[in-house]
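Input chain follows. Return structure tokens only.
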Amino acid sequence: MFLLKTKKRLSTLLIVLVSGIFIFFFGLGTTGLVDETPPLFAAAARAMSESGDWITPKVNGIFRFDKPPLIYWLMGFFFSLPKNELWDSFGSLSARLPSALGSLFLMLMIGDTLFCWPQKGDRQFLTPIVASLGFALSPLIIIWSRTAVSDALLTGTLGITLLLFWRRMASENNDQCTSAWVFLGFAILTKGPVAFVLASLTITSFLFSQRDWKRLLCKINPKKGFLITILISVPWYILELIKEGRPFWDNFFGYHNFQRYTAVVNNHAEPFWFFLYIMILASLPFTPFLYHGIFQAFKDLLKSSKASCNVTETLYTYSLCWLTSVLIFFSISATKLPSYWLPAIPAAAILISKSFIDLKNSNKSFLYLWIFNILILFGISIAFFFSNIWLTSINDPEMPNLASELISSGIIFKAKFFFSSFTLLAIILFSLQSKNIFLYLQILLLIGQSFLMSPIRKLADTSRQLPLRNISKLISNTREGNETLAMIGIRKPSLHYYSRQIVFYEPNTKEGLINLSDRLNTDRRINYEDQPDYDHKSLLVVIDEYSSREQHWSNINHQKLGAYGIYNLWRIQKSDLNKYSELLVNSGYKSDWKNRKVEKF
């Protein structure tokens, strides 16, 4: 019997593993990095790998204190592998692997937890697979697990932490609770104190719902556990504080943690109910089943408050506490981003699997749930059939031909075909009263990843990032005597990443022109591989076509060296730049780059 269960467990995890590899790793390094944030992470990690300074992240010659180092260390490890440039020419595979691996390991943990601790009334071999796919097929997880930022890694480390805590509380053996605290340390090293806050809120609210909370608290051994977490996570913060002092304290704790939570930064102001809206999008097309799972878990919570409950059957209550903790914490935050919802998606997937169990074991048809689900699929299909209406509203200055390229690439036609077929099959399976309709639809979504996402990623890369890679090559081929490099107008950190050179970013305003002239004389910085010659008589300027039409830029004598997409590469004599800058200063314009804290990464 034990051997049979072990074989089933391995088979389940193998199915989850293969599915996860397909979702997260298929074509992972075939496209470049997408601006604005991923090139900053990748550049900082590559600089660590090349310079040997694994303590302080730097981008473009400037300290980058916004995130702790674990994401940089992992990216840097992959950048350091032998012959990296041969198997990862864009550097995007090395930069994206930590995100993909974090999601894959969490996906496996979700499946294994539901297999080893089946909930009340669940003896289904398929439930762990449904829950794992419910997590991996979330639109937000698909996007961020293939993006070179720290959000997916935080979701992975924090999700594994919370599942390990519950497994320890649900376990009947007397093993030490160590691994959960270790992963909590990793989560804090991924994105800071927010990981500890979310874990504390989840566990506290869950223990509050349990009658034997003291025994459960003792099982996770918080006294010893805090020490383990501190030993893993705190040393880097102390070293960085000793090394860099006040700038690190003000930027990391002051701006990127306290100020982000208490005030709106970078114009990311959203209403209080913002994450209720994001919760709907994040679980599409199975959102109705998430709400059903939340409702059923809440009913279980009320029942457990009136009668004693076996802790091994509280995973859905725990997931409800998990999801609610993330919802409340980030709803209170002044700054709100869709990625803040990622840590709640594992809990949402587990709650969705509860609907799967109820549908399998109940005589009720749950007619309203499937009607809502089919209407969602039908609505998506209709949206693509009437794409000619909303395609005309797309106005992206960086991709002026996006609408026509979407049509000519066949992506719109593929989307029409896929979602129409998807909707039709859902109706057929529903009419046949198939008990495994939930799983069948997930499998179709799994197949649809390569059908739709691959060409979308390729088109986006060709339209948005290829011009920047090409102009970076042109810069390397035409640069004379370590000329300084500037980018005017549209700000693209990937230019620094691909060119490997210090880049001065300025707006296309008259003040921007004065700023550039001033900074070339006073704002001296070096990169590990690039030491610009600030005294060279000329400089290179990447300027988008919209900015190049501004009179104060077009009037400067310049040599056009090439153009890719909307970007032009000019060579400008510093004497001409300084001359025009003086004219603007005499006309009443002033430099403002010091007040703007320019390029504060």
